[in-house]
From TrEMBL:
The lineage of its organism: Bacteria, Bacillati, Actinomycetota, Actinomycetes, Micromonosporales. This is ATP-binding cassette, subfamily C, CydC. The chain crosses the membrane at residues 44-69, 81-98, 152-177, 183-203, 259-287, 293-313. Pfam families: ABC_tran. Belongs to the ABC transporter superfamily. Lipid exporter (TC 3.A.1.106) family. GO terms for molecular function: ABC-type transporter activity; ATP binding; ATP hydrolysis activity; ATPase-coupled lipid transmembrane transporter activity. Residues 354-590 form the ABC transporter domain. PANTHER family: ATP-BINDING CASSETTE SUB-FAMILY B, ATP-BINDING CASSETTE SUB-FAMILY B MEMBER 6. GO terms for cellular component: plasma membrane. InterPro entries: AAA+_ATPase (IPR003593), ABC1_TM_dom (IPR011527), ABC1_TM_sf (IPR036640), ABC_CydC/D (IPR014223), ABC_transporter-like_ATP-bd (IPR003439), ABC_transporter-like_CS (IPR017871), P-loop_NTPase (IPR027417), Type_1_exporter (IPR039421). Keywords: ATP-binding, Cell membrane, Membrane, Nucleotide-binding, Transmembrane, Transmembrane helix, Transport. The keyword Transferase does not apply. It is a multi-pass membrane protein. Its main location: membrane.
């Protein structure tokens, strides 16, 4: 709470990136959104035309009704009014029908697209665990920022294009009656539809730019304050944390108030513009000797047209408020929106060949590399452990392999193809497993497991859970597989949570299984048993990259790589490494003595 969790991510390792952990900024988020909207363009175009037809029907209704009323005052023969009477009825009915179909078509198109965008955002967050660290912020991205994409289309682009189209038609129609009046109308429409929206945008831009990050920060506060409540209380820091969150909330209220006040002022200006334009049009028409009835038509038509153009003020205001959220979604999707390399067969879950060649990762320019010239060959079926002191670069290696961190130098290939050539959603089928701080969802045991392999049957669930050492516990629960595990697995012990996450990884069974500290939180005896059963449960031909701080249970692995400060300092099999002087032997002797002591003292 007092300090945000350390941000991380591939951005820090790429020269084009912004702050580490934050996706790179995109120059035009709207362009990214439009690219995402491309498959739905025909539906959106249909919605835009329907919106324009609705507005046009409204404008025509006002003009025709005015003509009808003013003409009727002169008591003409009824047959002269029949067409207008029918037109008024038809326009009144069609406006309602058109509005309904426009809403239906617009929402249909946008909701289809949003489903797609949400899935992409979720897949990107899921595939880049380092971005997921800020769960409150991530949640805000998923909820409000994706809604910004929806609002950009429904509340900005569709109404704005409809308003522009109808304004042009209105000026054209007025020009048929009086070019001078049409000129006055055009000026009024330009003020209402261009100058006022630009003014509203300029006045609200700064406040709006502050709004989305502030909402994100408040979401992080909410998560930190609830999840970290016990720790904050233990350190007597609750008051301080609440104060900081309160300060942000008050700032948010001030900004919202300022935006609302500016909005009201611009709305008032809009009403003024509407009245002035109508007056100018009437004067111009009178000066041009236009018939009295048509002057009335022009006056009321002007009021209706300006009101339609004023929708652009709302659209402009919405747009500024949406920009920050749009930028974040666009930046997040920037990499995944890029089309995948074509021509290759999709990657499957079967055996794969992985190669690291001279891989160097640096999180920040000028910082020491987290991985430094790392080489490794992981052919199908090979099991390799990576060990080393804290901060040696082990988790970074896992992050590189799962595609969430990109190397600054060197190359990682899967079946001979660079990892970055795979689509965001494609890689997890081939490479995955148990990453650091695996997330357990507030759902049942079954639902948490099925995330690994949707559609798995009960035997498969039982096999994976047994290998992780959790099956007995599941069977003891009154609700069995349907036991709810609580928020972040809060109703489980640390060890049970870890076993559940491990079972999920085993059920997913990717061809390259990455296990980052799979036995963390288990006592030494349980850790040995779980590691042995996990390795035994891995299908033949599937390779394993095991990251571990414990050196026990590694005797059967094909290779052990010792990392220190990002460099490989030792590599070989367990027996070779314990025989040679170095970090591995020292650590092995220390851990062995400590665990023997623990086992001896156990009741
Ligand atoms: N997201 C990040 N942003 C900046 N630096 C990072 C990030 N993640 C790791 N590092 C740095 O990279 C180095 C390697 O970290 P890494 O987490 O890979 O080590 P590790 O061997 O897994 O450590 P541990 O055993 O403690 O988990 C460390 O110096 C760490 O501070």
């Amino acid at each position: 709470m007092t300090e945000a969790p350390r941000p991380a991510g591939d951005a820090g390792t790429r020269p084009d990136a912004g702050a580490p952990g934050e996706p790179a900024r995109v120059r035009s988020p709207e362009r990214t959104v439009l690219r995402l909207a491309r498959p739905y363009l025909d539906r959106l175009l249909g919605a835009g035309l329907l919106a324009a037809a609705t507005e046009f029907a409204g404008l025509a209704l006002m003009a025709t009704a005015t003509w009808l009323l003013m003409s009727a005052a002169g008591r003409p023969p009824l047959d002269r009014l029949t067409v207008a009477i029918v037109a008024v009825r038809a326009l009144a009915v069609s406006r309602g029908v058109l509005r309904y179909t426009e809403r239906l078509a617009g929402h249909d198109a946008v909701l289809r697209m949003i489903t797609d965008v949400r899935a992409r955002v979720f897949a990107t967050l899921a595939a880049r665990p380092t971005l997921r660290q800020r769960s409150g912020d991530a949640l805000s991205r998923l909820v409000s920022d994706v809604e910004a994409v929806q609002d950009l289309l429904l509340r900005v682009l569709v109404p704005a294009s409809a308003a522009a189209l109808v304004s042009a038609v209105a000026v054209g129609g007025a020009a048929l009656i009086s070019p001078a009046a049409a000129g006055a109308l055009a000026v009024g429409l330009l003020v209402a539809g261009v100058a006022l929206p630009a003014l509203a945008t300029a006045l609200t831009r700064r406040a709006a730019a502050e709004l989305a990050p502030l909402r994100g920060a408040l979401a992080v506060d909410a998560v930190d304050l609830t999840h970290g409540a016990a720790d904050l209380a233990a350190f007597g820091a609750t008051g301080h944390a609440l104060e900081a969150a309160d300060r942000r909330a008050r700032r948010l209220v001030r900004l919202e108030r300022r935006l609302a006040a500016t909005g009201f002022a611009v709305d008032a200006a809009g009403v003024l513009v509407s009245g002035l334009t109508s007056g100018a049009v009437v004067l111009a028409a009178l000066a041009a000797d236009v018939d009295g009835v048509l002057v009335g038509v022009l006056a009321v038509g002007t009021l209706a047209a300006v009101e339609i153009a004023l929708a652009l003020v709302g659209a402009g205001r919405q747009w500024t408020q949406l920009r920050a959220g749009l930028s974040r979604v666009a930046a997040l999707l920037g990499s995944s929106a890029a089309p995948p390399e074509s021509g290759d067969t999709p990657v499957g879950p079967g055996p794969h060949d992985v190669r690291f060649a001279e891989v160097t990762v640096r999180y920040r320019k000028g910082a020491a590399p987290a991985l430094d010239g790392f080489d490794l060959h992981l052919p199908p079926g090979r099991r390799v452990a990576v060990v080393g002191p804290s901060g040696a670069g082990k988790s970074t290696l896992a992050a590189v392999l799962t595609g969430s961190v990109r190397p600054e130098r060197g190359q990682v290939t899967l079946d001979g193809r660079d990892l970055s050539a795979y689509r965001a959603g494609e890689l997890p089928r081939a490479v995955g497993g148990l990453l650091a701080e695996a997330y357990v969802f507030h759902a049942t045991v079954r639902e948490n497991l099925l995330l690994g392999r949707p559609g798995a049957d009960e035997d498969e669930l039982a096999a994976a859970t047994a290998a992780a050492g959790l099956l007995d516990w599941v069977r003891e629960q009154p609700d069995g597989w349907d036991t709810v595990v609580g928020e972040e697995g809060g109703q489980l012990s640390g060890g049970q949570r870890q076993r559940l996450a491990l079972a999920r990884a085993l059920l997913a069974a990717p061809g390259v299984l990455v296990l980052d500290e799979p036995t963390e939180g288990l006592d030494p005896a349980a850790a040995d048993a779980v590691l042995a059963s996990t390795l035994a449960a891995t299908p033949a031909g599937h390779s394993v990259l095991l990251i571990s701080h414990r050196l026990s249970g590694l005797a059967d692995l094909d290779e052990i790589v010792v990392l220190d400060a990002g460099r490989v300092v030792q590599r070989g099999r367990h027996a070779e490494l314990v025989a040679a002087p170095g970090w591995y032997r020292d650590q092995w002797l220390l851990q062995d003595a400590a665990e023997r002591g623990y086992l001896a003292l156990r009741p």
